[in-house]
Amino acid sequence: MNAVAASLGQSYSDHPLRLTFLKWQCRVRQMAMRDASGRPDDAITPAVIPSGETEPAGHIITVLNKAPGYSLTPELEHMSASTNDPAQRRDKAIQFLSSSYYQKASEFSDLLTATFPPGSPGAEKLKEAGRVTLVFEAYSQRFELDCKVWRLSAHNPLNRATMAHNRLFNPDLPGDSVVLGFEPAWAKSKSGTQ
Fold it and tell me: What is the DSSP letter of 142?
């Protein structure tokens, strides 16, 4: 990813796997919102295998963010600010995210993000590895994404979007949480059916 793309959180790859994955992610995330009250399942929580290792370091909950040109971060932040009741906030989030939010895969960044606690050794390990493989296995699909790991600065639009999204479900999320970005190298990634 070049510096401009990194700052915007968007790659410009036209690799066919990119759109296939984004369409699948939009569908499974919409299902999670509509059918599981927003609880993340295997389609959203990939195994993470650091470069040079053969076993997963664990699973992470990923966020699929709108590309900055389609961002709805202010709306997500407004939902958090509009009530102190976590149940109301969650209900508003589920209603908003289960409607038309995930309808157009082309509006999403392919740079997946995840939050980690401040000072997280796991986040540090992934950042130091530089590259990881994210393995998504759900609904008879398997995606193995070879990804570069980025630590997103506080001013990065996808950092702000990730924090806004996650605060809807976890209002106690520390402001200094670590946000990592995972940029797929589509030509090195693969997919298949189970």
Answer: E
Task: Report how far residue 186's alpha carbon sits from residue 194's, in angstroms, rounded to the nearest whole number.
Answer: 20
Termini Cα distance of the chain = 30
pLDDT digits (tens, 9 = 90+) for 11-39: 567 899 999 999 999 999 999 999 998 89
**Whole-structure pTM value:** 0.91
Tokens of 8: 């915007």
CB 126 within 8 A of CB 179: no
In angstroms, rounded to a whole number, what is the distance separating the alpha carbons of residues 53 and 71? 35
Strands 190-193 and 141-151: antiparallel
pLDDT > 90? residue 55: yes
CATH of the domain at 18: 2.30.110.10
Q: Are 148 and 185 in contact (CB under 8 A)?
A: yes
Q: What is the rounded CA–CA span in Å between residue 136 and residue 75?
A: 29
- Domain count within the chain: 1
Domain of residue 145, residue span: 3-193
H-helix or E-strand containing 136?
Answer: strand 131-138
